[in-house]
Design goal:
Keywords: ATP-binding, Coiled coil, Hydrolase, Metal-binding, Nucleotide-binding, Zinc, Zinc-finger
Strand content: 5-15%
GO molecular function, one term: ubiquitin protein ligase activity
Largest sheet: 10 strands, mixed
Organism: Phanerochaete sordida
CATH class of one domain: Alpha Beta
Protein name: RING-type domain-containing protein
CATH architecture of one domain: 3-Layer(aba) Sandwich
CATH topology of one domain: Rossmann fold
Shape: extended
Number of helices: 39
InterPro entries: ATP-helicase/E3_Ub-Ligase, C144_05_dom, Helicase_ATP-bd, P-loop_NTPase, SNF2-like_sf, SNF2/RAD54-like_C, SNF2_N, Znf_RING
Radius of gyration: 45 Å
Length: 1487
C-alpha cells in the first residue's frame, strides 16, 4: 500500500501495513555516508513534555518503532519505489520516491513486561512502546477535557450529577423506609449511584440485589481490531497510559467506592445515611476472618460502616443520624487506649476469667450474708428497697432512646452488668451500624496500627512480652469506610492510617475534594485503592497530553451535582452578597504604611514594583510572608502577636486598644531612635580614634577633636532627652501612687461604713504605709519595668559620653591644650564616679556593716574550756576522755583557725575600693584581682572549715557544705563553674570573673586546705560529740539503779554535752550569718570592680581590619546611614506624637489645617520631623530651591524620606492621599471600574451610628456595630463570623463579650454538647465564631442567616465552603453575606484580582442568587511556588505572579486602563466606598 503525500506512512501489525511516502536516501562517498534525503517526522506537532516522555527522540514514532525493533518487540521493513513525475521542462526529468515502512509487532514479546539490564534501557523501551501505541492506536475518549491544562475549575466543570435511572420510576425505590426525611429526586439518583459503586441495585420488589457487571474495560484500556497475517480479525487491548498490549481482555479489579462531590449544601450527609440504610451488609459477622498480609494480622468481617470526620463535625454526624435515622446504632470510637471492651480474643479470655473470679467472690459474700441474716428475717423496708432496685434496673434495661449512641465515657459511667455477655472488639463493634471517629484519632492510632517490625531473634533465647497491642481499627474489615471532608486528610500519618484500615468499599465525601490544586487528590485515590493510579501514573495524568484520561478517571469514580443543575428541585432561599469597605483609622493606616515600606525595602522593590538593584530576583517565600502580615494588619494591628510566644516586644495574650497600640508604637520608635543616636555617637567616637592612628592624615588630631566635639554634643542631647523622659515617667509614677492612695482610702471608707473596722483586715493600713512605693498591680509593675529600662539606657549613654570626654582629653593632651585637657579629664572622672556611685555606695555600706557586725563576735566565745568533762566511771571514762580530747585538739584548734582566717578576710574585704585623689589608669580591676582572688580562696576554705566544725559536733553536714569540700577531679571549665553556682543560694559569692584561676590562688587553696585537714587526721569524722552523748545516755539507761554512781556520772556527762551542743548550735548560727555577710560584701565589691572595668574598657585602644583609610570610610558610611535613620525616627516620633494628640478628636487642630507658608487651607499635605505642617504644593516648591533642605520655620535639616504624608477632608468628595512618587514618578493607577455590590450607604450609615464599647480598630469596631444593629432590626437572628486569623477571633470574642453579645467559638465544647449544637439550640447565643481556614467545611448551621467574612479571601474554595454553612438545604430564610475589606490595601487588590479573572462573588452580576461552586469559585492555577518543607495549609497565595499582582496591580493591568501620573489625583473612588473623614498618613516618597 503506497501513498502520494510526502508525510503519509503506514505500518503493519501481523500483516496490516501502515505506509509512509516520506523520502529518504543516502549517498556513500569514500566510505562516508551523506544524507541526501531524510524521512521527516510523521507527527511533528507531538509534544513529548505534555505526554510525560523523558526522551526527546520519542517525538518521532518511527524512532520509537526502531527502538522496539532493537528490543526484539517489533520488526521494521521498508520498500522504496521510484516513479516518473511530469517533466518540469524538456531538459529536467522529475522523479518521485515512495517509501513504504511496515511495523510488525512480535507476540508474545510485545505483551510481556519490559525488563532489561539497566534502568535506562528499560525506560527507553517502555517509552518507545507507549509512543508507538499512542500513534498507532490513538486514545478513545468518552468525554473530552474542556482544556488541555486541567485545573480545579475545569475539572469540576467536567463532572456531572448521577445518571438518570431507567426507567425513572425506579427512583422511588431508593427512598429508605427508616429515613425520616424524604429524599429529593436528584438525591435518590445519587444514592442509586452510590449503591451501584458497591455492586448493588434495588429491583422492583425493593430487594437489594447484585448489580449486573457491565462489560466495560478496565480503566485506561481500549479494545482495537486488527487483521492478522492470515487476514482474519483479531482483538487487541491497549493501555492508553502505559502502552501495554494484551491479546486477552484484562480483568477489571477496580475497587468499590467513589467520590461524592456534591456541591456544599445539597445533602451529602443525608445521601450517605440513605446508603447505610439501603445496604446494611446482611450476613457479615466476625466469625468470618481472613489474613491481612499488609497489616500482618487476622481480620474479622463486620457489618459496620466507619465514618471518619474532622473533630468539629463529629457531634454533627451524631445529631444528623439521631435526627434522620434513629433506628441506626452509633458508636463513637475515641482511640485504642479508650476502648472499654477486650480488644483481642486473648484479652477476652482474661476478662472472662476475671469476671468468673469476681462472681465467685460475690457468691461467697452473698452466702456469708445469708448465713448472717438467717438468724432474723429481713425487714419489710429492706425487702421493698431490694424490689425497688430490681425494678429500677429493669426499667433502665427497658428504657431505650430513639437512637443508641455509645462512646467511651458513657460506658465508663454505666454500671457493669454481670449478666451481659462479654465480647471482644470485633464482636462488639458488629453490634453497631455506624462507628464514627476523627482524623486526630487516626493519627494517634497509627503507632499501633502498623505491623510490628521484623527483628532478628536468637534461636537459643526465650523472649517474653513480644506481642504488642494493635489498633482495633485494623482488626476488623468494615463494610464501608466513609471519609467526610476528605480534603482534610492531607497526607502523612492520616493518609497512612487510612490505607491500613480494611474495608469492602470506600467513599470520599466532600463538596471541594480538591481545595486548591488537582495534585492534592493523590491521597483520595490512595484511599479509594485505585491501583491503576500509582504516583507515577498520577503525575502523568496531570500532564496536558492526558487531560482526557484524567476526565475519564473522574467520570468513572465521581459525581458532582450543582445547584444550578437541579434548581427546579431545590427550595433554597435567595442569597445576597455584599462588600463592606472599611477606611483604616489614622493609627492603623500608619501601621500598615510602615509595614508596607518595610516590605518593599525587604523585597528590594520601590513603590512602582521596580527593582532597586541589578540582578534582582524575587524571594517568593518572603513575598508570601509579607503579604500575609499585611493582610493581618488590615484586620487589627495585633494580629500575629497575641498568640506569638516568640515576640519579645509584645506581651502575648494582652489585647490592646488602638490608643494603646499607638503608645506601644511611640515607645518602640523612641527606643529605636535612642539606640540609633547612641550608635551614631559610638561610630563617631571610633572614627575619631581611627583618625588619631591615621599617620598619613596631617590634621588627624584636629579632625578627631572636631568629631569628638560633635559626638559630645550629640551624646549630651541624648542624655538630656532620656533624663526628661525619666522625669516625665516619674511624674506618671506619682500619679499612679495618688490614684492607688485614693482608691485605698475609698475602700477604707466603704469598709468602715458597711462592715466596720474589723472587716478591713489591715489591708488598707498596709497600703497606706507603703504609699511612697508604686502600687502592686499590673500598672505599677509595668511602670517599674519601664523605669529600669530607662535608667539602663541612660547609663549606657553616660558610658558612651565618658568615652568621648576621656578621648577628648587625650587629644587635648597631644595638642598641648592644658586647660581643655584638665576640663575633659575632670568631666570624665565625674562621669566615672556618677556611673560607679550606685555600686560603690552599696559596696561601702556592706563593708561598714561587716565591720560593725564583726565586732559582735569574740574569739573567747568560740573557745571551749578544757577539760570540759571530769573523770568518768568504769564504763564512761574512755568516752569522757574522748570528749576532752576532741574539744582540746579539734574544736578549739578549729575555732582558733576560724578566727585567724576571719580576721584576714575582714581585712581583705574592708580595704578601700579606690584611692582617693589617685589618678585612674584603667587597670584598677586588674590590680584588684589578686586581693579578690585571695579573698575568694579564703571564703571557700573558711566555709569548709566551718562545716568541719559542725560535723565534729553533730556528725552532720549541709548539702552545700558537702558540695564545697567534696574531693573531685579538676574541672575548671565555664560550664562546670556555672553548674557549681547553680547549686548555691543567693548568699553564695559571685565568681571573680571569667578568668582561669591564678597559680598563686591554687597554691594558697592547697595550703589552707592542708591546714584544715591536718585537724581531721587523728579524729574519726563519724565520732562526733553528739555520738558520744548518745552512748553516755545509753550507758545511763542500761543501769537500773538510780543511785548507782556510774549512772549518775553518765547522766551528768550526757546533760553537759547536751548543753554544749545547744550553745554551740547558737554559735554556729552566728558564724553562718557572719559567713553570709562576708559573702555579700565580697559580691558587692566584685560588682563594683566589674563596673569599673567596664568603664575602663571603653577607652581601650581601637582595633580595625584592613587599611585604616578603608576603616574610616566604612565608619563614615555607616554614620551617614545612621544619620538617615535618626532623621526618619525623629520624623516618625513627631508624627506619632501628633497622632496621639489628635487621637481623641480624630481631626487636626485648626492651626494645622492651614499651611504655614501660604496660610491657606489644604486637603493634602506633609508634616516634617519638627512637627510643622505644609501643603503639598508649597513643600514641593520649597524642596526644589537650592537651600530647600531645611525646615522653612525652624531651619532644622529635613529630607523627603523623613516626612509623613496625610489627607484631611471628606474622602468621598474625590480627594485621595498624596501619591508616593519615586524619582518624581508615582506608581500608576488603574481606571478600570468594577461594579461591586456594596452595602447600602444608608444602612451602612445607620450601622456606624451604633454605640459600641471599646476600641478594637476600624474593621472589628464596624463589625461590632453591625451586629448590634442587627439586634435592633432583626432580634434573635443568628450570624456566623469567619476570620482567617486566630488572633482576630480572640479580639472579636473580647469585643462581643464586652458589648453583651452572646457568642461561641468552635473550640468551646462541653462534655456532651459542642459549640455548634449549643449554638443551634440556645436562642440567646447570636454569633458563632469560626476559623476561616480550619472550620469552614462540613458544618450545617442553617439556623443562622448571615455570614460575616472579616477578610477578603484569596482562595474562593474557602469562601464557598464558609458561605455554604447557611446556603444549603434546610435553610428557611433569605441569607446575606458581608465581606469586609480595608480600602487602599492589599485586601482591595485581592478583590480586584478575582474580579478581573471572573472569580468574584461580589460583582453585581454574581452577588445575588444561590451560590454555585462553579468555575468562578475555584483557583485558576495549580502548583505552589517556593513551597515550605512542611505542607502549607490555609488561605495563602500559591503563585508568585499572583502575589506581585496583589502588591502592584498596575503591573498586570491592561495598558488601556492606566492613566498618566498627573491625572491620578483626579481619579474618583468606587461607589459605595465613602467613609467618615479621617486623615491618612504614611511615609513620603518625594524626590
Amino acid at each position: 500500500m503506497s501513498g502520494q503525500e510526502d508525510n503519509g506512512w503506514s505500518t503493519a501489525v501481523n500483516g496490516v501495513k501502515l505506509t509512509s511516502s516520506s523520502s529518504s536516501a543516502y549517498v556513500y562517498v569514500d566510505n562516508q555516508s551523506m544524507s541526501l534525503l531524510e524521512v521527516p517526522n510523521v507527527d511533528p506537532t507531538f509534544n513529548v513534555e505534555e505526554h510525560d516522555f523523558r526522551h526527546m527522540s520519542m517525538r518521532d514514532p518511527l524512532f520509537a518503532c526502531s527502538v522496539l525493533q532493537d528490543a526484539g518487540r517489533a520488526e521494521l521493513s521498508a520498500e522504496m519505489a521510484v516513479r516518473v513525475e511530469q517533466a518540469v521542462n524538456d531538459s529536467v526529468l522529475s522523479l518521485g520516491i515512495t517509501l513504504d515502512i511496515s511495523v510488525s509487532l512480535i507476540f508474545p514479546t510485545i505483551s510481556e513486561p519490559t525488563l532489561y539490564a539497566t534502568k535506562i534501557a528499560t525506560s527507553e523501551a517502555e517509552e518507545a512502546q507507549r509512543r508507538a501505541m499512542h500513534y498507532i492506536f490513538p486514545p478513545q475518549v468518552q468525554r473530552s477535557a474542556p482544556q488541555s491544562h486541567m485545573d480545579v475549575a475545569s475539572l469540576y466543570a467536567t463532572l456531572g450529577p448521577a445518571p438518570q435511572l431507567n426507567p425513572p420510576s425506579l427512583q422511588a425505590n431508593y427512598q429508605p423506609h427508616q429515613l425520616l426525611p424524604t429524599l429529593l429526586p436528584f438525591q435518590r439518583r445519587s444514592v442509586a449511584w452510590l449503591l451501584s459503586r458497591e455492586g448493588k441495585a434495588i429491583n422492583d420488589s425493593l430487594d437489594v440485589v447484585d448489580r449486573n457487571v457491565d462489560s466495560d474495560l478496565p480503566l485506561f484500556w481500549q479494545k482495537v481490531l486488527v487483521k492478522a497475517a492470515d487476514g482474519t480479525e483479531q482483538e487487541l487491548y491497549v493501555n492508553d497510559l502505559t502502552g501495554a498490549v494484551s491479546t486477552s481482555k484484562p480483568s477489571d479489579d477496580s475497587p468499590r467506592g467513589g467520590i461524592l462531590a456534591e456541591e456544599p449544601g445539597l445533602g451529602k450527609t443525608l445521601e450517605s445515611i440513605a446508603l447505610v440504610l439501603l445496604n446494611p451488609a446482611i450476613g457479615r459477622n466476625p466469625s468470618n476472618k481472613s489474613w491481612n498480609a499488609d497489616a500482618r494480622i487476622f481480620m474479622k468481617e463486620v457489618k459496620t460502616t466507619l465514618i471518619v470526620t474532622p473533630a468539629s463535625l463529629l457531634q454533627q454526624w451524631v445529631d444528623e443520624l439521631k435526627l434522620h435515622a434513629p433506628s441506626l446504632k452509633v458508636l463513637i470510637y475515641e482511640g485504642w487506649s479508650k476502648v472499654k471492651v477486650p480488644i483481642t480474643e486473648s484479652d477476652l479470655a482474661v476478662a472472662k476469667e476475671e469476671r468468673a473470679k469476681a462472681a465467685r467472690k460475690a457468691k461467697a459474700r452473698a452466702t456469708r450474708a445469708e448465713l448472717a441474716a438467717a438468724k432474723s428475717s429481713p425487714s419489710p423496708a429492706l425487702a421493698m428497697a431490694r424490689a425497688k432496685g430490681k425494678g429500677k434496673a429493669k426499667a433502665q434495661d427497658d428504657n431505650t432512646t430513639e437512637m443508641d449512641v455509645d462512646d467511651a465515657e458513657s460506658r465508663a459511667d454505666a454500671p457493669e452488668d454481670d449478666d451481659e455477655e462479654l465480647l471482644d472488639w470485633c464482636s462488639y463493634v458488629n453490634q453497631f451500624d455506624v462507628c464514627i471517629t476523627t482524623y486526630n484519632v487516626l493519627q494517634q492510632d497509627l503507632g499501633v496500627a502498623r505491623p510490628p517490625p521484623n527483628r532478628p531473634r536468637r534461636t537459643n533465647a526465650t523472649y517474653v512480652n513480644i506481642e504488642r497491642s494493635r489498633s482495633p481499627l485494623v482488626m476488623c474489615e468494615f463494610y464501608r469506610v466513609l471519609m467526610d471532608e476528605v480534603q482534610m486528610v492531607g497526607g502523612g500519618k492520616t493518609e497512612e492510617m487510612v490505607s491500613l484500615i480494611p474495608r469492602v468499599s470506600s467513599f470520599a465525601v466532600s463538596g471541594t475534594p480538591a481545595r486548591s490544586q488537582i495534585g492534592d487528590l493523590i491521597q483520595v485515590w490512595k484511599f479509594l485503592r485505585v491501583d491503576a493510579v500509582t504516583p507515577r501514573i498520577w503525575a502523568r495524568l496531570l500532564k496536558p497530553g492526558y487531560a482526557d484520561q484524567l476526565v475519564q478517571l473522574f467520570l468513572r469514580y465521581a459525581i458532582r451535582t450543582m445547584k444550578a443543575s437541579v434548581k427546579d428541585e431545590l427550595t433554597i432561599p435567595k442569597q445576597t452578597r455584599y462588600l463592606v469597605p472599611i477606611e483604616l483609622g489614622r493609627v492603623e493606616r500608619h501601621v500598615y504604611d510602615q509595614n508596607l515600606e518595610k516590605a518593599l525595602l525587604d523585597l528590594g522593590l520601590d513603590a512602582r514594583g521596580v527593582a532597586v538593584s541589578e540582578g534582582w530576583q524575587v524571594d517568593t517565600a518572603n513575598l508570601r510572608n509579607w503579604l500575609r502580615k499585611l493582610r493581618g494588619i488590615c484586620t487589627h494591628p495585633q494580629v500575629g502577636q497575641l498568640q506569638n510566644q516568640g515576640d519579645k516586644l509584645h506581651k502575648p495574650g494582652v489585647l490592646k486598644t488602638i490608643g494603646e497600640v499607638l503608645e506601644s508604637m511611640k515607645d518602640q520608635n523612641w527606643r529605636n531612635l535612642m539606640e540609633d543616636r547612641r550608635s551614631k555617637v559610638q561610630l563617631m567616637t571610633e572614627t575619631a580614634q581611627l583618625y588619631q592612628r591615621h599617620e598619613q592624615h596631617h590634621t588627624r588630631y584636629q579632625t578627631a577633636l572636631e568629631i569628638l566635639s560633635q559626638a559630645e554634643k550629640e551624646a549630651n542631647d541624648v542624655i538630656q532627652e532620656i533624663e526628661a523622659t525619666i522625669a516625665a515617667h516619674d511624674q506618671d509614677g506619682r500619679r499612679l501612687k495618688a490614684q492607688a492612695t485614693a482608691f485605698v482610702s475609698g475602700q477604707q471608707g466603704v469598709g468602715e461604713s458597711s462592715a466596720g473596722p474589723s472587716d478591713d483586715k489591715g489591708k488598707g493600713r498596709a497600703m497606706s504605709e507603703e504609699s511612697d512605693d508604686l502600687p502592686r498591680n499590673a500598672a505599677g509593675e509595668e511602670h517599674r519595668v519601664k523605669r529600669r529600662a530607662l535608667v539602663a539606657r541612660l547609663r549606657e549613654c553616660q558610658i558612651t559620653l565618658h568615652k568621648v570626654t576621656f578621648l577628648k582629653g587625650d587629644v587635648h593632651h597631644v595638642l598641648g591644650n592644658t586647660e581643655e585637657e584638665t576640663a575633659a579629664y575632670e568631666k570624665a572622672d565625674g562621669l566615672r564616679r556618677l556611673l560607679l556611685r550606685g555600686t560603690e555606695e552599696t559596696a561601702e555600706r556592706a563593708m561598714a556593716y561587716l565591720a560593725e557586725e564583726g565586732n559582735r563576735l569574740d574569739e573567747k566565745e568560740m573557745m571551749i574550756e578544757v577539760p570540759y568533762l571530769g573523770a568518768g566511771g568504769i564504763r564512761s571514762s574512755l568516752l569522757m576522755e574522748e570528749v576532752n580530747e576532741k574539744v582540746d585538739e579539734l574544736l578549739n584548734q578549729q575555732s582558733a583557725l576560724l578566727w585567724k582566717w576571719r580576721t584576714h578576710l575582714v581585712k581583705l574585704l574592708t580595704m578601700p575600693l579606690n584611692s582617693k585623689g589617685e589618678e585612674v589608669d584603667g587597670m584598677e580591676y586588674g590590680r584588684s584581682l589578686d586581693a579578690q582572688g585571695e579573698a575568694e580562696t579564703y571564703l571557700q576554705v573558711y566555709a569548709a572549715l566551718l562545716a568541719d566544725r559542725r560535723e565534729a559536733l553533730t556528725a552532720e553536714r549541709t548539702l552545700l557544705a558537702a558540695h564545697d569540700v567534696r574531693e573531685k577531679k579538676s574541672r575548671r571549665t565555664k560550664a562546670a563553674k556555672k553548674a557549681e553556682l547553680a547549686l548555691m543560694d543567693e548568699d553564695v559569692m559571685l565568681a571573680v570573673g571569667d578568668f582561669e584561676p591564678q597559680p598563686q590562688d591554687e597554691a594558697l587553696r592547697k595550703e589552707l586546705n592542708d591546714q584544715r585537714k591536718a585537724f581531721l587526721d587523728d579524729h574519726n569524722p563519724e565520732r562526733a560529740i553528739r555520738s558520744i552523748m548518745v552512748e553516755l545516755s545509753h550507758i545511763a539507761a542500761a543501769i537500773m539503779r538510780k543511785d548507782d554512781p556510774e549512772k549518775i556520772i553518765a547522766t551528768q556527762a550526757a546533760d553537759q554535752l547536751r548543753n554544749l551542743l545547744a550553745s554551740q548550735a547558737k554559735l554556729m548560727e552566728k558564724l553562718q550569718a557572719d559567713l553570709n555577710r562576708l559573702r555579700r560584701t565580697f559580691n558587692e565589691r566584685i560588682q563594683y570592680f566589674r563596673q569599673l572595668q567596664e568603664v575602663s574598657d571603653t577607652v581601650a585602644d581601637i582595633e580595625w581590619e584592613g587599611q585604616i583609610a578603608e576603616a574610616i570610610e566604612r565608619n563614615v558610611y555607616e554614620t551617614e546611614e545612621l544619620d538617615v535613620n535618626v532623621n526618619t525616627g525623629k520624623a516618625r516620633q513627631r508624627y506619632l506624637e501628633h497622632l496621639a494628640k489628635s487621637q481623641g478628636e480624630g481631626t487636626m487642630d485648626s492651626d494645622e489645617e492651614s499651611c504655614i507658608l501660604c496660610k491657606c487651607e489644604f486637603e493634602r499635605g506633609y508634616i516634617t520631623q519638627c512637627a510643622h505642617v505644609f501643603c503639598e504644593d508649597c513643600m514641593k516648591a520649597w524642596l526644589t530651591r537650592e537651600r530647600g533642605k531645611t525646615c522653612p520655620v525652624c531651619r532644622v535639616a529635613i529630607h523627603p524620606d523623613t516626612m509623613q504624608r496625610f489627607v484631611i477632608g471628606d474622602k468621598s468628595a474625590g480627594q485621595a492621599a498624596p501619591p508616593r512618587p519615586v524619582n518624581n514618578e508615582p506608581a500608576p493607577k488603574s481606571t478600570r471600574r468594577i461594579e461591586y455590590n456594596f452595602i447600602d450607604p444608608d444602612i451602612f450609615h445607620d450601622v456606624n451610628t451604633m454605640e459600641a464599647l471599646g476600641s478594637y480598630g476600624s474593621k472589628i469596631q464596624t463589625l461590632l456595630r453591625h451586629l448590634l444593629y442587627l439586634q435592633i432590626i432583626d432580634p434573635g437572628a443568628k450570624s456566623i463570623v469567619f476570620s482567617a486569623w486566630a488572633d482576630s477571633l480572640l479580639i472579636i470574642e473580647h469585643a462581643l463579650t464586652r458589648n453583651a453579645i452572646p457568642c461561641l467559638r468552635i473550640d468551646q465544647s462541653t462534655r456532651k454538647e459542642n459549640a455548634v449544637k449549643k449554638f443551634k439550640t440556645d436562642p440567646n447565643i447570636q454569633v458563632l465564631l469560626l476559623h476561616g481556614e480550619r472550620e469552614n467545611a462540613g458544618l450545617n448551621v442553617t439556623c443562622a442567616s448571615r455570614v460575616f467574612l472579616v477578610e477578603s479571601v484569596v482562595h474562593h474554595a474557602f469562601e464557598i465552603q464558609a458561605i455554604a454553612r447557611i446556603d444549603r438545604m434546610g435553610q428557611t430564610r433569605p441569607t446575606e453575606v458581608f465581606c469586609y475589606y480595608a480600602e487602599d490595601t492589599v485586601e482591595r487588590n485581592i478583590l480586584d484580582l478575582a474580579a478581573r479573572r471572573g472569580q468574584s462573588l461580589y460583582t453585581k452580576d454574581h452577588a445575588a442568587g444561590t451560590l454555585t461552586a462553579g468555575p468562578i469559585t475555584a483557583p485558576s492555577k495549580s502548583g505552589i511556588d517556593a513551597p515550605k518543607k512542611r505542607a502549607q495549609k490555609g488561605d495563602f497565595v500559591f503563585k508568585t505572579e499572583d502575589m506581585l499582582a496583589i502588591f502592584f496591580p498596575h503591573l498586570f493591568e491592561d495598558i488601556e486602563y492606566l492613566i498618566p501620573a498627573d491625572e491620578q489625583s483626579q481619579t474618583a473612588p468606587q461607589p459605595g466606598s465613602s467613609q467618615a473623614s479621617q486623615p491618612i498618613a504614611g511615609p513620603s516618597r518625594l524626590a
